[in-house]
């Protein structure tokens, strides 16, 4: 893994010569056959983020996650010992789905077809009229287990019963120095879910570069970014690992959106954020004034892990972390965004977005969160406004390649990694 940018480096991309500078093929974004290979060689063999531990705090709490790219649905449950388990939602008897509800709490899972019962570890514990079966040993007919582990409170599953890497081995090459970020002091403030008619990589690509920000977001947050002389938002630095990638960005500290630490830090940071926004964006300024001092927890910059704001830039805004293959985790001084881009088909993606904030202790704090909810909603709508049209345009066949600039190096890296894994499997 290569890290901190060298001042003499002309292009970030050139630090990763294996990525090249050439155009990127459109075929992986439009081909049903290519998507089928991604399912087999990537999604059914890779750790996939499916939830947070806070979603199932008590024994018996569970949720069900449909993973179309893995052709399955999994039950994720906390057992009586407090451990988190995952298993396929398929009864061992006549293959009915055992759980119909998307979440809940239970002592046991009962199949609604014939009443077979499973405990919280997936073991078969009850079979109605068991004497009529032929040499049935219940120990052989539990729910099929799914590999499951937790990193920093995020629950991951892996369809491979014997994953090539542990979750820690999977995460730490790029994100080991992020461990210790105060995820446990944040709660889900708001969330969105939507099906988008585009390839999963195309949707994710819209979130892993900032070249577009000055244009797409011209009426929402363009005044909150730290622009280059060329007028765009260039990365402070990037890291491209074997699978994962990340990018750091700077903001305009004289704006509310561009100075996210203002609401928790207050003081000079808040005064700086209000310097321009008080006149140009009075509602944002009012929300900041209302929210200051309301957060239950403070997050001093020097208390964050080394891997957060790793450039130590004074105008740091946030880091984009893309956990391979489809998990986007944006870390900021006082909140974080967790987005999943789950494939449904070669041209259809389930977007799941959650934003985590520290608990606000006053009505003013809640008002600030509602303001941020609307601001982030508008940014999301602007991002998503292009992806379906881009998919339709890509499917015309008019263009065979995309041309990428240096600030889009994470898009290039993502395409490179997917293609490397799909083609490596093909050549075996």
TrEMBL record:
Domain of life assignment: Bacteria
Entry-linked InterPro entries: Rieske_2Fe-2S, Rieske_2Fe-2S_sf, Ring_hydroxy_dOase_asu_C_dom, Rng_hydr_dOase-A
SUPFAM superfamilies linked: Bet v1-like, ISP domain
Residue span, Rieske domain: 47-157
UniProt key word Membrane: no
Cofactor(s) recorded in Swiss-Prot or TrEMBL: Fe cation
Keywords: 2Fe-2S, Dioxygenase, Iron, Iron-sulfur, Metal-binding, Oxidoreductase
GO MF assignments: dioxygenase activity
Family label: Belongs to the bacterial ring-hydroxylating dioxygenase alpha subunit family.
Name of the molecule in the record: 3-phenylpropionate dioxygenase
Organism lineage: Bacteria, Pseudomonadati, Pseudomonadota, Betaproteobacteria, Burkholderiales
């Amino acid at each position: 893994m290569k890290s901190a940018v060298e001042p003499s480096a002309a292009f970030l991309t050139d630090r990763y010569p294996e990525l090249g500078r050439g155009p990127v093929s459109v075929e992986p974004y439009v081909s049903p056959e290519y998507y089928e290979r991604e399912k087999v060689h990537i999604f059914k063999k890779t750790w996939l983020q499916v939830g947070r531990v806070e979603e199932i705090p008590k024994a018996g709490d569970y949720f069900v996650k449909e993973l179309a790219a893995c052709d399955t649905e999994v039950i994720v449950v906390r057992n009586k010992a407090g451990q988190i388990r995952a298993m396929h939602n398929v009864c061992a008897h006549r293959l009915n789905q055992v759980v119909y509800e998307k979440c809940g709490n239970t002592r046991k899972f009962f199949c609604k077809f014939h009443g077979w019962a499973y405990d919280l570890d997936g073991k078969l514990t009850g079979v109605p009229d068991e004497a009529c079966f032929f040499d049935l040993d219940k120990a052989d007919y539990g729910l099929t287990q799914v590999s499951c582990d937790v990193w920093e409170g995020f629950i991951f599953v892996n369809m491979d019963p014997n994953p090539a890497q542990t979750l820690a081995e999977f995460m730490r090459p790029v994100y080991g120095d992020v461990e210790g970020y105060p995820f446990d002091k944040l709660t889900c403030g708001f969330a969105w879910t939507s099906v988008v008619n585009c390839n999963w990589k195309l949707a994710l690509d819209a979130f892993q570069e900032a070249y577009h920000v000055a244009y797409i977001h011209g009426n929402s947050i363009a005044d909150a970014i730290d622009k280059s002389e060329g007028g765009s938002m260039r990365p402070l630095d990037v890291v491209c690992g074997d699978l994962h990638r990340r990018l750091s960005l700077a903001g305009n500290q004289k704006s509310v959106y561009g100075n996210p630490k203002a609401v928790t830090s207050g003081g000079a940071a808040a005064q700086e954020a209000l310097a321009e926004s008080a006149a140009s964006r009075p509602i944002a300024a009012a929300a900041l004034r209302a929210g200051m001092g309301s957060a239950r927890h403070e997050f001093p910059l020097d208390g964050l892990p080394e891997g957060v704001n790793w450039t130590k830039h004074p105008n740091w805004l946030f880091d984009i972390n893309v956990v391979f293959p489809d998990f986007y985790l944006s870390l900021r001084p006082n909140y974080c965004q967790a987005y999943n881009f789950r494939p449904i088909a070669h041209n259809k993606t389930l977007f799941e977005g959650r934003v985590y904030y520290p608990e606000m202790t006053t009505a003013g704090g809640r008002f600030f969160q509602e303001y941020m909810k609307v601001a982030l909603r508008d940014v999301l709508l602007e991002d998503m406004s292009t992806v379906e049209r881009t998919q339709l345009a890509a499917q015309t066949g008019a263009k065979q390649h995309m041309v990428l600039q240096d600030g889009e190096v994470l898009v290039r890296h993502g395409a490179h990694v997917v293609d490397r894994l799909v083609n490596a499997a093909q050549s075996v």
